Amino acid sequence: MQRSSELTYTPAWWVPGRHAQTLWGRIFRRAPTVPTRLERWDTPDDDELEVHRLDATHPEAPRLVLLHGLEGTIQSNYIQGTLALAQRRGWAADVLIFRGCGTRMNRQRRIYHSGETADLQLVVDRVVSENPDQSVVLAGFSLGGNVLLKWLGEQGTGVPRQIRGAAAVSVPFDLEAGARQIERGLSRIYTYHFLRSLVMKARAKLEAYPGLFDDTRLTGARTLYEFDDIVTAPVHGFADAHDYYSRSSSLQYLPGVRVPTLLLSALDDPFMPRETADTVMRLSEKSAWLLVEFYPRGGHVGFVGGATPFRSHYFAEERLVQFLNSRLP
User: Fold this and answer.
1) Could you tell me where the DSSP H helices lie in 214-309?
2) What is the Cα–Cα distance from 74 to 128, expressed in whole angstroms?
């Protein structure tokens, strides 16, 4: 697919650098609050999924399925911003909240991870069965984008006909390379932020399931790699962090994608080494289904634009909605 967009991205002059772009939304943005209905869906393993649903303005409207990033929630500013754009177009939308990220802890031993696609499959199946004539588009941010791309690659030509397009924003693509990347320099601030909440959730699981992992080792964890080696890998059946990253990274699944898919990232993303971006671009050249838009600046799920802080806008959300709209009949 050729690069084509009626939108262009000019980074906001008042948000300089990759880290400011990455952190602006979390610290300063006041995203709109879009009212949604909370539903809890039973899973085959006697657990539940939390899905927040936005109703369409008319029965023929398309439906957008959204996936959040690591430790995201329904309140994540990029989720609310995208929901607001969908609402403006009259679309329906469903936000899948990964297990352990909802308003209450899930029941089973497992939580969520970057390679878990069964829950997305359940959501897609239900959405399609509810209205077989409705067009569906999919979008994921960061970890959610990795899950989305892995699922698309796994499904290949088996993706339901109702799915018209997909978009993945700020995906790490190579999980191990990304984990190593944020261990360096100022990027370690992200490690600290994520570890604080991940460790708290892991200990809550350990109280419910004694012996689930080695708590003594967890006390000494200082990186996401160490956390995944101690908790994520054994809880979810992987040999270690390297095995988890190797089997879960979406990079290897890109050649199997058979749905028009936008890959939108910034080359200064602190979560993605430049070597990974180069590999993604080479793979996309061999695919008729992947549209790569990698911009020089934008940070991680940042892409802040606008003349002033009071007239800010968020290019990634605008672009993914514009791209998905272009795929609709």
Assistant:
1) 215-219, 224-227, 233-235, 241-248, 274-284
2) 22
CA distances from 19 to 58, 110, 216, 232, 233 (A): 41, 32, 33, 27, 29
At 2 the pLDDT is: 40
Cβ neighbors of 95 (< 8 A, separation 6 or more) are 36, 51, 52, 53, 65, 66, 67, 68, 74, 79, 83
Nearest alpha carbon to residue 40 among 25, 55, 27, 53: 53
**CA 235 to chain centroid:** 21
The whole-number mean pLDDT for each consecutive block of 10 residues of the chain, a chain of 329 residues, reads 63 96 94 95 98 93 98 97 97 98 96 98 98 97 98 98 98 97 91 95 97 95 97 98 98 98 98 98 97 97 95 96 97
pTM exceeds cut of 0.90: yes
Instruction: Give exposure, 49-65, as e/b (b: 16+ Cβ within 10 Å).
Output: bbbbebebeeeebbbbb
Give CA separation, 234 vs 34, 125, 198, 230, 241, in Å.
37, 29, 15, 7, 9
Three-class HEC string of 72-111: CCCCCHHHHHHHHHHHHHCCEEEEEECCCCCCCCCCCCCC
Amino acid at the residue 199: V
Is the four-CA dihedral 20, 199, 40, 70 of positive or negative sign?
positive
Whole-angstrom distance, CA of residue 89 vs CA of residue 87:
5
> Using the 8-state DSSP alphabet, how is residue 185 labeled?
G
For the CA atoms of 101, 105, 106, 110, the dihedral, rounded to the nearest 10 degrees, stands at 70
Catalytic residues: 142, 269, 300
- Report d(CA 136, CA 56) in Å as an integer: 12
Please give the structure tokens belonging to residue 97.
């909240």
* Furthest C-alpha separation in the chain: 55
Residues in the chain: 329
